[in-house]
User: Fold these one by one.
Assistant:
Number 1:
Amino acid sequence: MAETICAVAVDAATFAIDKLYSYRVPDELREQVQIGTRVLVPFGFGNKRAEAIVLAFRADAGGRKLKPVTEVLDDTPVLTAQQRKLALWMRERLYCTYFDCVRAMLPAGLWFKRNETYTLSPAADLAALRQRGGAEGAVLALFDQPGQTLALADIRRRLGGKSPVRALDALAGEGVLTYRSNTTQRTGDKTEKMLALAVEAATALARIGRRSPARLDVVSVLADGGWMSQKELVYMTGASDAALRDMVKKGLLRVRYEERLRTPDLSAIERADPPVLSAQQQQVCDGLTALLDAHAPRAALLFGVTGSGKTQVYLKLIAHALAQGRGAIVLVPEIGLTPQVLQLFAAQFGDAVAVLHSALSMGERYDNHKKIRDGRAQVVIGTRSAVFAPVRALGVIILDEEQDSAYRSEQSPRYHARDVAKYRAVQEGALLVLGSATPSVETYYGAEQGKYPVFRLTERFLGTALPEVVIADMRGQAREGRDGLIGVQLEAALRDTLAQGKQAILFLNRRGNSRVIGCALCGWVPACPSCSTNMTYHSASGRAMCHYCGASIKITGRCPTCGGDQLFTEIPGTQAVEQEVRARFPSARALRMDADTMHTKGAHEKLLRSFAKGEADILLGTQMVAKGLDFENVALVGVLDADQSLYAQDYRARERTFSLITQVVGRAGRRTDTGRAIIQTYSPTHPVILAAARQDYESFYARELETRQALRCPPVCGLTTLTAAGEIEQQVLQSLLALKNRLQSLMEGQYADVKAPVLGPVAAPVVRVMGRYRYHLTLRAQDSARWRALIAGVMREFLQDRKNRGLSLFADGDPDL
């Protein structure tokens, strides 16, 4: 019989050596190894077992002697054919490994954890071995006696983070240490033990007699022949677990295990009638439905003002897709939006809805993924990673608030959910709907170029007017010596709103109690020891924290440098605003929504439900409160510091500022009354502020596109950044200079057809993070297969060059700069 050879993507392969590796499938594993299953294979010179996924079978070994697959980890494939194609597409475009893409698609509960151990030989002469120096001696010093076993994680921890791999491999090669590894899935199926009578009730009663009332009660409860969980049976009868096990052993009871999905209980959500659309909504819905009915790849922009009822259109469109036996994915940018969205969609589609986002436990994500994969859920609600949901017969993908930067991943693979959604729509013949009141400049530019149609909603759903917007100039108040972040006009509006029994939202895109804390006597400011940035003070914990690496120090009230007690704070954050609100409006009930208060499970849902019920008067927070939220009693919105993001260095700063202000202003007056919004700014005549106040996207877009054309930034030109990081700053700079020269040389010769300017190297906005310096090169060129081949090639050269040992390098397309 001919050998079976499989081609696998290996988890342990870095980008520099990433490819499909060939392995021989042993005869005893031929039936188990399938395309899409994960396996363990020996990898590298040490033949350590590594996790891999089978992506293809090959006809022959090309005359080479192949290593064998050692173990199959999955009973059935974990990737569909469409997902495998998507992984290959992502890998080609995102400068990452095959396995990076696979890992992005699977829920964390499906991943495997490896327990690696090293055992000192029972015959080892420990005293003699300890005479060795260097890394091997340091490793051997950790063992107390022959035969002792230590986990690799423990060895790394005790060595203070120094990599022991080379020393361990050498000692294992000599036979001094024995390496072992076992792999287990992080989360499995949750089951519940169910019990039923194995004999007739009369027979069971006769065999028990009268000696055990609890056992007699068990028989009585199960006498109808039904099944009951052991937990319920113990509660109802008082029988112990041991007693029930004994009844099973004696053949009185039989056992089975039923699956229990760790998914949201949607049964308590009252089903609602289908939404009734306005004439304008119906016209838009009809247009989108026509595209859906084409059963061909389509994309469209749904451009509607805030409060125009885009969600009602989504519901109708998805109902139409379900009627055709097709599924849907609805993406939202913030975890905080999922409770409200889930409530709306579950009221329409019931248990056909599943939810996916990072705030779920590992088991919940695993079970929701399983529910989707098995076809028990046809509608998926989630954040960025939900774009990979294995929905059967996918008909429509909706990106709500499509302009939001949260749809871009900052970890490998550095994908944008919009790009993945476009590919899936093409691959599966689905409709992609990009919804927003403030479309990204790239999306609107694409619509102008005729890539997809635009459907407009120019009126609010219930006929209410857009909020009345007041621009409050904060410069005069600063000269008058007014303290705090709530200006005179906003304070008066808040008092008026509270007096009417209405609610208000205050928006400040800044966490913490203060951006800076320092000493007024000596000038001390807490700086992160590992990152080139100052720490942020959080009064709730009394600590200054680095928002990059998480390092923190206790603020005692005295300067650690000079001992003085004259500490100052500047640029208040959300905590300081909360304190100011409580001081100015002591009878008002305020809630704060930011990353510091929303870290516990269910915190988003609990807070939003409380505010919706009227249990608080003022909701203040960061961008979590700016998008998608719909509260009928909110009459006032205050933007406390509109300039905060306006003057950031990246080219998207103006777009981000316009979008945030427009979105948060749109939270006011969404039902019967015309709302009010007050924008506090130190730049009251800035065109972005004025356009946001008017909710005038077209004028903002026209001006912004002119700027992008002048700067040669997306969408008129593509950007690629190559970022290198390392512990030695000079090494990072020298390596990037060499990389720049290599790029310029290649673009003068082999790649002259994609010649582009190379800018830099320049420091990242925060140059040092977790002890590593970061610099990047920037290249302006349109994306193409040739361009990607150039970038991927120089990256592999860089990572294989011994001079660059200890450095990392990654590429990012159209990043925020």
Number 2:
Amino acid sequence: MRTITKILILPLLFLALMPAHADAQVVVGNNSTIDIDYLTPKQYEIGGITFEGAENFDPRMVLLIAGLQVGDKIAVPGDRISVAIDNLWKQGMFEDVQISATRIVGNSIFLKIKLQERPKMSSFALRGVKGDDQKKLRDDMHIAVGDVVTENFLTTSANIIRSHYLEKGFSNVEVITTTKPDTTGGKKNMVMVDFQIKVGKRVKIDSLIFEGNNEAKYRAPLAKDIPILKHINVNKKSPTRTNKLMRKMKKTHDVHYGKKLYVWTKGFWSRSKYREADFNEDLTNLITYYNELGYRDARVVKDTVWNVPADQLNIKQKKKAKQDRLKVKVSIHEGNKFYFRNITFSGNTIYSSDFLAKQLRINKGDPYNSTMLQQNLTYNPSGTDISSLYMDNGYLFFRATPVEVLVENDSIDIEIRIVEDKQARIRNVIIDGNTVTNDNIIYRELHTRPGDLFSRDALLRSRRELVTLGYFKEETLIPEPKPNQKDGTVDIIYHVEEGNTSQVQAQVGFATGMVIGTLSFQLKNFSFKRMFDKSAWNPIPGGDGQQLGISLSSNGFFLSGGFNFTEPWLGGKRPQAFSLMANDLFYSNGFSYDKDDEKYSSLNIFQGAVTLGKRLKWPDDYFSLSQSINYKHYTLHNYSSLNTGFTEGTSNELAYNFILARNSYDNPIYTRSGSEISLQVAATPPYSLFSNKDYSSLEAAERYKWIEYYKVNLRGAWMMNIIGDVVLSARFRFGYMGYYNKEIGLSPFGRYYMGGNGLQVYAYDGREVIPMRGYTDNSISPSSGASIFDRFTLEIRQPIIESNATTLWVLGFVEAGNAWSDIRQFNPFNNYNSAGVGVRFMIPSMGLIGLDWGYGFDGKGSIGGGQLQFSINQSID
């Protein structure tokens, strides 16, 4: 035994049990005598705990974190004190932690916890940057007044700043961080943090140098080449020679091959930033490209990036370069090129080996391409892979493993080992995330039902149907199969996120003594039965998939109002849509109403329709049939715009209309694949055939009292994803309007007018407007309208933004079309031609907005030439 007086240090054994912290100390002592047996730890009861420092912390919380309480039993020597110090240290709140023993009385020990707090941030400043960068950095840094200032805090904040500018191509960013005590207003232990940022100049890529690419020789650019190196590019425009290898670099510039130099001109969207993570991704893609050519052993031996001062660039570059640039050098080992030889199958009982070989679509002698092999085995976007065969037939647990069984010279034999397993049936179908749309509205669209055999095609088709509804955000609509291999079942969970299904438009103004205004709204997921439920008005009752639209518009010359309602599942059991529509339009030439004034003219059209539509199961379930009865009542007063001689009187139109259509679009907004084709036939009763009247001698008002005609409209569109997200759209339209009685001739209403943007707001006299970019409104058709037309369109589309908030894409087009007054004039090879560019952006609350510039090559005077045209909801398509 040993006596220690005054302040005593715990034994070294006690210290050894503590975690090592540079600023943490443990002191145990008192002003009296403490006897400690180093060989035999003694149990003490904590008799009391006092605190020093850390005035801003609740002592109860400190004790809770430390794991010490008055009354606890602790061993001295022991590890409870070191554990308590470690717990407090981990909080990151303290610069120093000490636990002292102030005295020992009998079996009771009294402790003191001494803490020194780390300073907190009272404010911070970003110096050297302005505007958007200031705002973006403050959002990204996620720091706030009151945060504890540690070295890690300062380092992390500086790294976020550097990363922000590295993403922009500024690789020489310098961030100097300083802290200064803040004593204003009596503040204690507070500091001001200052980030001094020196951005420097953007460092751009000057050239990319390849070594070792002996087999990737120069070839003419091929449209089918898929650009996989997306991020590397350089800064200077140049001649237009390229190499097939370099097309994989997509956005490169000066490219060196030993002593030769080939240069590829960048597209307008290219960038010239260097980002290491993106560069590493590009190198991986480069090797993937080599592998797809058959070079399965290709690898990047090394890559080097170095800075070239501006004054060391060549003469041409020096004239343009005002800053340093980067050179990138990549050394490649290509290896030998390999080929497929014998491909065999084992384990297959459902399908023969010969059939599977045809489905695999890889022939003996093809370059060895493991990417294509895996794609044709597991998932091909066209749905022609071997997995689709099995999974569409319920074999969810199917597996196919390709194994290289022999490598001889440049040839490889492959054995595809198949495990078919048993068929899986769907047990449960679960909807997750639908906060507005009712479950039954979703379930009725699905092609996966409990008890059915699992089908991957049905799963993808169900997702397509949900996307087509327009109720949910496409990006987050994910079906998730959860298989249970033990009992051969699978649960399917459809994760959905509600989107904006309402479109509202409100405009009002005053000009030239007239009130001009529009008020309209279209609700796509309305619930009529919940209209009288107060709790459902949030902001409108929804969830039943019904559509409701109301519109009112006026500009002093015309006044229109409309109403439409659609129940997509009449009766709730079958996909049979029922629709009601009514609208009334009044147009005048702006003069004050006076029936005796020859200057005043007007046209009033009232229209109503009842429609019944349903999905068909034959020839397949992409087909639909819609039938409707339409009634229109026309009232004309001194109205001569039709150019048909019918200017005064009333007319009635009662027509039967049916549309047979097939639509397999994968997405209703930005479509990448699928087709749409429709045949529309409309006909009125042939009243004149049941009458003995001499129509040739009747006045126009009597002759057109009951309108008669028949009409055939045919349209088709095909979408093809040709490369990346680029889509080729090919479309055509054809229409013909005929009559039953030569003495009556063509109906004055419903004729075709071609040219312009196709906005139906101008079709105030019942005409059918056919858009044609590059030409002014109605400029291609005869002044009195056409009875037959055709139009052909080719478009290339590239998406720019695809998000929950908006979808935006750019396009280029060529278009041809014409309209004739008589079918005998029809010539599909005699068309007006145009070409141009455009942009489309989808705003959920407004719909699809378009802006196109087209040049009409065949117009005379003001009808052709360059035309800038605006469109709404595909009116121009």
Number 3:
Amino acid sequence: MLTTLITTLAGLAFGLWRGDPLLFGVLGLLLGRVVALDIALRELRRTLADQGRKAAHTPDSQTAPADTADTRPLSLDLDWTQAPASEPPGGSPAPALSETATVSAHDDAFPYPVTPVEDWLDRLRDWLMAGNLFVRVGIVLVFLGVGFLINYAVDQQWLVFTLELRLLAVAIAAIALLALGWWLGARRRDYGLLLQGAAIGILYLDVYGAYQLADLLSATPAFALLVLIGLSAAALAIAQNAPSLAWFGFAGGFLAPIVIVSGHDDHVALFSYYAILNAALLAVAWFKSWRALNLLGFGFTFGIAVLWGILRYEPEHFASTEPFLVLFFLFYVTISVLYARRQPPRLRGYIDSTLLFGTPILAFTCQVELVRHIPYGIAWSAATLGGFYLILAWWLPRLAGVGLGLLSQAFLALGIIFLSVAIPFAFAADTTAGVWALEGAGLVWVGSRQRRGSTRAFGLILQVGASLALIAGLPYPLTQPFFNSVYLGAAMIAIAGVASAYWLDRTQSDRRGWESGGAPWLLIWGLTWWLGGGAVELLREEPGTGLPAGVLWYAILTLALSEALASLVHWSRLHRAQAALPALGLAALVLSVERVTHPALAGGVLAWPLYFVISYLVLLRLEWRERRPYLAWSHAAIALLLVAVIEWELLWQVFEQVALAEGWRIAAVALMPLIGLLSLTTLNVWPLTAWRFAYEAAVGAVLVFALVLWTLWSVDSPGGAAPLPWLPVLNPLDAMLALVLLALWRWWTDLNRRELIHPTHNEGHAFLTLFGALAFLWINLTLLRSLHHIWLIPYTWDALLRSDLAQTSLAVLWALVGVALLLIARARRSRALWIAGAVVLAAVVIKLFTVDLAASGTVARIVSFLAVGGLLVGIGWWSPLPPRNGPARATTGGARSAGSHAVDQPSPP
């Protein structure tokens, strides 16, 4: 290919110097093809000789099929893309070459890569120094002589024969040379092909001179003759299994409309002519897998189509142009399938990536320009193209059987991409971000399938570019929420990120360097764009009281989509993300509290129950798939969220009742945590039975902490009971605190009974100390609130401190509590309870001498000292200090048995 390019450029340069660039450019093209053909034939002969020598050394080797002897286009670039992952029969998979790699005859001799320049120089050296040099030079001179003859004959007209006869004589000579080359091809193949190529070139030049230089042929006959020459060259190439000859013939055919310009803008004739050539090329592809020939037709067809569309297309040409575009598209989709199917058995399934992806890209680009004036024309075109590829992906394996799996999957990816592209074209014009994101995801998929890290890297870069393009377009005009190009672009970036994370996880063994550990970040990237795009649309649609419900509905949609995806593919990383998604409800609750809105507002009355149902359903299905420890945290989070939502609803209803006293409202704050804590210790249903520790230990600890904080917070409340009469202990606040204490005790004992925790001795004493402190606080608060409501002492710390009645009551109450603890300690032989009672009594004594002694002249203070003193004297007899654990020592009262305790009998004072 490089040889042809150099000789063509040289011909054009010489033609510009001589004033006839077109003629010498064509001569340069023909000369380059002849030189390339000769070099290729020498490579073929060398390859066949090497194969013969190898066969001689390995008698058991099998002879290759005859059709594969010359299946490579001679001296043209080849592109063997990645094969399917399965190994070909009898050996390891063939090494994959990049799309631009050149297959050289030196590959067998030199294992290192050869650059295009070095390869071309080697070819030129072989062409000059080896073989029949006289034939090569002679053909070149004949080419130049024929060209000069035609040009000079037209300018001088000095021959006796007319110009028509001269051109006819040249044509007859060319046909004779063609026949001679055919006859000699049976004896000396390379020599015969050279003569045939020279004859075809002379025929092209002859027709060109008759039409363009001498005006002896009109456009139609010249057109027909060039088509005939091209098809004849293709037929000769197929018959002789010579791809370069076919390439030469079709190149002339495709060049005919370019070199023969009639001045008429008849695009129907032009595209009809190209349709005939492409039909012939399809016939060749049915028998031969000559990639260079396919690329020649693809480049000329869509190149001319794009140029004509840019320069000449008008909307009124749609009806006469659209059928040709569809026909060309179908031609090259079929050729790409035939190319993969016509590969040798060991290479079956190799695909031509240029035709596979270039055909829909160029065809859709042309289609966009054709239907731009039609409303929703681009959207319908993309949807039709996507549906076509999906049908082809479904139908191809059933038609061709095994071996075309990669091609079928590529068609499937193209179908999904074009169906996705149809959505933004239907709702907005700005689709750059979405298309780039999906294209990037497709590249990651292809790179994962073909184990090419560079392709995956480019796909990821394209997704980053998509996000930057979407951000760079801000601000966007306000349109319908969610149904606009901005949100759809963000959604496509999200989908592309999630899909890329999935494929990177699927190819863990092939990941190197920067790719290791990239899958979770890609998944987070995708979820961030999905949730961020939804948040922006929700804020734009309803920034006020309806926002919490909108967030909730979007969370429900996200959970449903994630579960649908998890049902289709087994992806453990997605399961972890699903386990965290129920936390989206927390955002809705925070927004509801921040805006002080009712949770049932704007559809929340349906959204909240549905949200909890689908959240627990997702967690249940995750548990069925794989029971992982992280699910415990999800259960704990959703349970706490459920308690919080019901708590918010309960408080909203209670605070709306203005007739209720403060005690009811303060007590309502602890109601849901209390019910939740009691439910954890009594219910035996899923999910509590499956995740007992998460619910009873983790969730229960949070609820206990909340109840302790509530207890401390409720100290400042006097605890009114209106509209009901206030009664000691039986009022809302005192009763709620008593129930809290019972719930705390039940929770602790149930944890130990089920062996969910194994507290140490100090940890157990710490809980008992906390529980005792809360119980002591409850008794004191009950007394103080009784004094407030019955004796009308103001419920303020200053008033209670200055009240003699309050201080005396507290002293007597503390003494009674201390005595009760000492009596219980004696009955249970508990040294800890005895010490607790002693501490309370010590606090009473300290209080008497620090607070009550200041007003010792009052009756209340006298009662305090006498009552407390009498209780201390009595309790000293009935409850002495119990001994430490272990055998008691002998006392001065007499020796005791080794196993007796000091509390067996009360000691006399």
Number 4:
Amino acid sequence: MEYRFHEIEKKWKKRWEETGAHKVREDSGKPKYYCLDMFPYPSGQGLHVGHWRGYTISDVWSRYKKLQGYEVLHPMGWDAFGLPAENYAIQTGVHPAVSTAQNIANFKRQLQEIAAMYDWDREINTSDPEYYRWTQYLFVKMFEKGLAYRKRMPINWCPSCKTGLSNEEVVDGKCDRCGSDVTKKEMEQWMLRITAYADRLLADLDRLDWPDKVKRMQANWIGRSEGARIVFDVDGHPDARIEVFTTRPDTLYGATYMVLAPEHPLVATITAPEQRQAVEAYVQETLKKSAIARQIVDKTKTGVFTGAYALHPLTGRKIPVWIADYVLMDYGTGAIMAVPAHDERDYDFALAFGLPVIRVIEPVPAEGTNEGSPAGGGAALAGGLELGAAAAEGAGTADALPYTGPGRLVNSGPFDGMDNEAAKQAIVAELAKQGRGEAAVSYRMRDWVFARQRYWGEPIPIVYCDQCGTVAVPEDQLPVRLPDVERYEPTGTGESPLAAIESFVRTTCPKCGGPARRETDTMPQWAGSSWYFLRYPDPHNNREPFSREAVNKWLPVDMYVGGVEHAVLHLLYARFFTKVIHDLGMIDFDEPFQHLFNQGMITLNGAKMSKSKGNVVNPDDIIRDYGVDVLRMYELFVGPPEEDAEWNANGLEGVSRFVNRLYRLFMAHAEHPAPPRDSLRRLRNRFLATLNERMETFRLNTAVSAFMEYVNALSAEADKGLDRETLETLAVTIAPFAPYLGEELWERLGHDYSVFESHWPEVDERWLRDEEVEIAVQVNGRVRARLKIPADASEEQALAAAAAHPEVAGWLDGKTVVKRIYVPGRLVNFVVNG
């Protein structure tokens, strides 16, 4: 009666392959359900048990939906381009194409062990020319629509990976791939105009059934701010204009200096000759710093005066222009008007360099008090002249500077006395009237840097012609294939290794036929993963990326499973691509993933599993010793699926004992089931109701607990036998969790293959009600007894049973019952006197 998992797994794995059990049937007539894993990057390390968790969760859900009557699309593929494969190739000397193919073969073997219902006929690989042909096609369409453009700008630069990075790929000032400090480098870069979709990306989050945490992360990354765009002329430089964005136009009259990011293009133009040496030295020093280091709040403030002055747009007052590293070129406009009386960073900078501080907002005194700002509320010089008593007293009072609260305007010319919220609109209106500004919206999110100076990626399908300029490669010449090379190390000069391959670089212009040069940068690793979910419904289409009919049938994805670490990278990019493709008229929907589930990590000794940390548990070893079904069920049982969980090998033993116990119990009754009886009907339907509720709320760990409780209850009934419907219910419901076990149990009952062609059992509500209920019996409000009565007893029956109870009868003898109260299923109360 032992569960011989090696034999059973081998048997059913072969049967599934022979019958094409997991192939999607487009003509089944069933409603569709698209369940998708975030496809993996096939690293040389292979899968560990932490990876298994997400894949097991999605497969349990897919099999559950299949048993509910859906035609389920549950595909798998490979996010195969990118820096990791290239870095691995550089370290080992194995070409990335070779190592990637080897890694995919190993990953596929491991994923097939999971017993997931992947339709391998739909497998895709982003490094396959037949796939990236269409990635290039989509880039060309964006280029034609003005959404892909080239720009010279300071970009995030990883000196270790020797490539540019998008803002989203910089985490705490470090490269998210190698952990090196990120610097800045000015380069020509291909960009995607994701900011053109900022409002839609933000607004449409409300339509998605996603975790609130992820939606907040995306909203914060997009970072929509309402305010004003204000233009300052530069004294002595008629062609120079400094544009700032501020959310506080009400403080305009308090601007006492301006700060440009050291990388700002105007710095070289407006810097006075006597300040040029100091400015250039400061610029070079800043470029060595990460964005995070530059924004540390409590660091010592540094900066250099340019020698130039801006002109206040409403008063004409001269305002000194500085450069400082706390202003970033890729945030806002790369320039700020500094209002030290009402901004902490500006105040600290003013204090450090003796710059003026002008209060322009004073708090409104509470009724019955005379509290307010110091008399006059005038200007002072920070660190130089008198700051005023309030500032000297420190923060914590309304008079202290910097003051960031609401109030009324002072020292603001015609706007004095106005409420600061009303003043925002009034000052913007005056700026607009004079052509010096306007109401505006700004975003924290910047356009997407869509180029890498590396080899292993999709070639950007652009050529440069002296006659025609920048020209997209036409569709009939795609794909632009990545050339086979012996050397693929990054140059570090800002050029891709492809730039050294003359046979690749030299080409002809598609427009005029003259000589032209190919673009040598490649696309970032996010390119192929930004639309792969659209390819699965139609993976072998060689005429277009996908047919509109196929994609509209299956999309949006009904359930998307993956890690929360992709919240502002892959998920944001995929939404952007989908909206662009929708606007190109290729699909009917503009959001790719309706429901998102983020699984927690499996940790060991409190740390994320990683080969570098030496704390990886190989699933191959677990499968050898316990079998696939035990590992699947343990991955689910270990804790709430959305939370991190600690790996504990002892838990495997417990789950293994449970699986074997279930198998022995089932086999003891499968050949000769007992007749049906009410106790089993009640147990079965209550179990089903509990299991359904836990499945629908995605509490898969407690769903496994429900099986354990049910098997315990059935074991207590086993001496009287188990009926066929009880056994069938057990086989069907365990199958999504332990598919090999489910198939074996189903077959033992004499069914034709397969359990997954059956149906999820329905709950008979009649058997959820209790046979008996216990009620309290009170006399004059005091409990005198408890008794059990039939759950469907009438009021008359309940009162009679209560009055006849021996512990109650004595309290009623010789007394007059003036009132009888019955609360169904809970209590009887006799009110007596005498």
